[in-house]
Amino acid sequence: MKRSTFRVLFFLKRDKEKANGNVPLFCRITVDGQEVRFGMKREIHPKYWDVKSGKATGRSDEAAEINTLMDNTKSAIFKVYSELQERDNCVTAEKVKNTFLGNSRGQSMLLSFFDELNTKKKALVGKTLSPLTYDRHCTVRRHVAEFLEKDYNLSDIALKDIDHKFLFDFESFMLVTRGCNENSSAKYMHIFKHTVVTAIKFGWISLSNNRAIC
Length: 214
Known about the structure:
With 214 residues, the protein is of the alpha+beta class. The chain has helices at residues 61-87, 93-105, 110-122, 131-152, 164-177, 182-201; strands at residues 6-12, 23-31, 34-44, 49-50, 55-56.
């Protein structure tokens, strides 16, 4: 597989200078000439920033903290990029950013979303939900976790990365690897698709890319 060109750099957003003279710190991810950027939720005064090295200067605790944050962020992004390269034919800067932000901020990950929904469903057992249906939801969550680990080498995946190929691969995993019969697999896939549709309604997944799921 041809590996794409990939870079991670940090820079100051100088057009967003604050009243105290500080400016926001941003990260730029570039893949094959296409770039995306996101704020690091930190700020620094330009006089303590080395443009050439892309590092904070000085021996202050703040400079050390910012440099450590950037080093950790860069390592995590490279890990995401490597994982995406292993399983995707096309890795984009946007996909790397979305996956990284989902991992680091814990706000749009598939298994985390499953856990949130299942916690709410547990409270409905005996009211509007049967114990059997709840158990099936928990079983699907376990199967998805196993699928991610074995087929994608991931502990979790950003909801924005769920596409039709992912659904196809998961269904194949259920039938072949797990050995589920067609009836059981259909029930599990129904629960999984319902979870995806719920994520779409919450705005975590783009509806335009997943119309066939609904």
